[in-house]
Amino acid sequence: MTDLKGEFLTKLLNRKDRNAFFAFLERGNWLIFQDVYPQFLLYEESVKQNQPLFYLLPRLNVSTFMETVWNQLWRGEDSYTLCMALIVNEQSYLEKRVVQNPFYQKEVLNKFEFIIQDLLSFNHILFPHGTGKLRGLTLHQFKSLHERILLGKRLYSVLFHDKDLLDETVNWAINHPHTGSRKDYWPHMFNNVNEGVPGLTFPLRLKNCKLRKGARKVYSPNLEYAWKNISQPEAESGDWFEDSNVVNYLVNDNALFNGEIKNEYCKTIERLEITALAKKTINFFE
Fold this sequence. Notes:
By secondary structure, the protein is mainly alpha-helical. It has one domain (about 1-285). Helix content is about 50%, strand content about 5%. The protein has helices at about 10, 15-50, 65-75, 80-100, 100-110, 110-120, 145-160, 165-175, 225, 260-285, and strands at about 125-130, 135-140, 190, 205, 210, 220. It has a two-stranded antiparallel sheet. A two-stranded parallel ribbon has the order 3-6. Strands 4-5 form a two-stranded antiparallel sheet. A hairpin with a 2-residue loop joins strand 1 and strand 2 (about 135-140). The longest helix has about 35 residues, at about 15-50. The radius of gyration is 21 Å and the shape is globular.
């Protein structure tokens, strides 16, 4: 979301498109939180009362799918099943409300810029886990519910099948308050203060995930300065759970992914810089 106000995307997208992309991301984040947070509060209260209270979930507009899973967990189901169910629920909940929403289809998902973003692998999900260290995966075909669910399963594998990585990631998060700026994990390359001069054409600064000698850092603002707080309309009603085949996603296929992503991520940033510079050059000669 902060990238939309950062150095490169402000040169690639006009203000209307940036605002539409932000609305798309913000709506998705808001919907997920308002659906998941009550589930954990109800679980916490169930533990306090030593009895399952998950029959209340439908009154909170939570899917019957999750009501069943929470009850199974209470009876001794493993946490892996719960996590996979939350991934399925999260992405399925967003499918009609955001991904298939006609407004977002027109203003975001079918836009040339979004298609290019997918083709150039800009959809990285990153886990910082130490000074300069990253793990993660890349999402392709964002519009595919199946692919988004599989990505969630693979990210679980990256994070939870390596205890050392999990511990390092948790420790990093505890010691680095999240600001939304990419400076949080790569301060050698990003800054939340814009070091550039307005109107000045910049040369290519990045090579092999390092700044060229004398080059200024890439601007990546904090979230609180990039976007104002906004209010969301009430979530659309309806239960997404219609096809029982989704339970197949809960099966542990024991697939392992190491999450090596640094080189791919570096190349993506470099491509983004080149694309932004090309766009600025074209606009200059038009």
